[in-house]
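Weekend entry, working from home. Most of the wet-lab plans are on hold until the incubator is repaired, so I used the time to fold the two sequences that have been sitting in the queue since the last round of cloning. Logging both here for the record. First:
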Amino acid sequence: MKKYLAQLRPVERRLVVGVAVVVLVALNWAFIWPHFHDFGDYQSRRNSADLKLRNFRNTIAQKPSLLAEIKKYKSQGESVALEDQAVNFIRKIQDQSTASGVRLDNTSRPNTKTNDLFFIEQWQNIHVIATEEQLVDFLYKLGSDSSMIRVADLTLQPDPPRYHLAADIKLVASYQKKPAPPAAVKNTTAKK
């Protein structure tokens, strides 16, 4: 290169050096300058990945305590076989109505909802006639039992002689679903 530049006159040398500088500036402008912000993007992506990794590790570290809580919650409440849930639901309502002195006039057929991952919900509409104290005692004891029965809808009106209250009640009970058995891991080996 020195040999080539030595053969040129001073004006030509200046022209060649000027063209080389313009070409270098154009190449930097086209290929280098647009990527100056890439380092900042890389740093922000790395920081977010580090944060996510830290969160994952913290969650994994909580696994023993979460498993203990799941075991505790599984042991709470009563376990009722799927085929006995409707009968158990009706029996609890009838037993509590007898104990509280509430007269069951009309009951509908229990309905089932199974869209939840952990619970099967059964609901039933009943019509009762009772005094205020009897009705409050019936609903309170039904809700405080371990059967997880709660009132979803309640309509009150006086009965025709106006001595008692007539109530249309929609009761809902939640029962634990049996956990699905873990999926079997298939052992696939390549044949040679």
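Second, folded right after the first finished:
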Amino acid sequence: MSLADRERWNRKYAAGNPNAAFAPDRLLLEHAHLLPGGGMALDVACGVAHNAMYLARRGYEVVAVDASLAGLRHARAALAAEPLPVHLVAADLEQLALPADCFDVVIVFRFLDRALVPRLKTALAPGGLLIYETFNTNRPGMNPAYLLRPGELRAMYADFETVETNDTADSRSERSWWIGRRPA
């Protein structure tokens, strides 16, 4: 992540917590039945760690990673009020080394770094679940480098078992999502 990107996110979070209720993303709630709890989870580009806290309440020990210290400060304050097994990590995801076969669940929301995909695949334990949702080319006004093309998520994880997705060529949604499992 460039210094300019990191500063932009820090400014956003310094202005206030955009998710003051720490409500989890809808896709995570709608697919809670796939999250039995127990084990390790990774929340990539966690922001204020609202999804990480949700996973921790469901019984996971969570590593929540973000480059924005300001966003992680909001998370730390929430975790002081409600201690949960969430480990906050300030790191540039472009440089982050991930352990192999470690995480039972990996989640990514509103973030795209195509170079990170092979490391995410390796970090997920065999049989582990990946939930990925981010913006696509139907979203106006964003840098196209950070937008998925139709079918791109499905193609990136073609070697995984697809559980459910909206990532089709005819989708009108501004977000593409894919849920799948790493082969056992």
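Plan for Monday: verify the second prediction. The chain has two domains: 1-6+48-96, 97-184.
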